[in-house]
Design a protein that fits this description.
Elements: H1 17-29, H2 33-58, H3 63-107
Length: 109
């Protein structure tokens, strides 16, 4: 589709809102010390996602701001997702090792 100047409309950047909200929910569920960092990053990502949507609704004049906010939201979501997955893996390993040790200690009583 072309605008009045004959130039093609640039593609609107993604807002990554769903990904931000999923990360926010997972970081709340995985509360505790490891969940604080992804919680903060997810909150900032949700704010940036809303900024992308707001800038997309303004039009072409706000496209650079929308692209910048989109890239920031994507980066924050990647970091948050990796952090959540790493935290869950560490927690599973920790509880597997020490949980089994506690059960064995209780069985020996």
């Amino acid at each position: 589709m072309d605008n009045f100047n004959g130039n093609a409309f640039p593609q609107q950047p993604k807002d990554y809102k769903t990904w931000s909200i999923v990360n926010l929910i997972l970081s709340i569920i995985c509360c505790g010390c490891p969940g604080i960092v992804p919680l903060i990053l997810s909150i900032i990502a949700v704010v940036k996602s809303n900024e992308v949507a707001r800038n997309n609704s303004i039009g072409e004049s706000a496209l650079p701001a929308a692209m910048n906010a989109s890239q920031t939201a994507k980066t924050l979501n990647i970091i948050s997702t990796v952090w959540i997955i790493a935290s869950l893996i560490i927690e599973i390993i920790y509880f597997s090792i020490f949980g089994v040790a506690q059960i064995m200690a209780l069985m020996n009583m």
